[in-house]
Amino acid sequence: MSNEYRAKVFKSGNSMALRLPKGVGLSEGDDVTLVTHGDGSCTFWRHSNAATVLDSLYGAFSPGFMADGRGDIEQGERDWSVGPTRGAAA
Predict the structure, then answer these.
(1) What is the enclosing helix (H) or strand (E) of 11?
(2) Which domain of life is it from (predicted)?
(3) Which of 4, 31, 46, 54 has minimal CB crowding within 10 Å?
(4) Residue 23: phi, psi to the nearest 5?
(5) CA 72 → CA 4, 7, 66, 69, 75, distances in Å?
(6) Sign of CA dihedral 72, 76, 79, 80
């Protein structure tokens, strides 16, 4: 089970900063990758570990993942003979 920490957001110049507890294990100057999710949650990891994190996510999908498509979007056939258009699709 992972540990849970509380952090404090504060203003630093024209940016927002996040003060993390020492127990998180980051060092001053560490580069981190931060991902925000649609539900308002965030995930971050050391940038040097990005390849390991992405590899672990890839292995998390079952072999039949999306074998039947998304199932929530109906799409008709497209006419690829016409050139590119600008603006919203009709």
Answers:
(1) strand 8-12
(2) Bacteria
(3) 4
(4) -65, -15
(5) 35, 38, 11, 9, 10
(6) positive
Residues with Cβ within 8 Å of residue 35, at least 6 apart in sequence: 42, 43, 44
pLDDT averaged over every residue in the chain: 78
Q: Are strands 42-46 and 8-12 parallel, antiparallel or unpaired?
A: unpaired
Q: Which token pair is 87? A: 């603006």
| CA–CA separation, 41 and 35 (whole Å) | 9
Distance CA 78, CA 80 (A): 6
Task: Determine how β-strand 32-36 pairs with β-strand 42-46.
Answer: antiparallel
pLDDT at 15: 93
pLDDT band at 89 (very low <50, low <70, confident <90, very high): low
d(CA 5, CA 2): 10
* Residue 12 tokens, joined: 């630093």
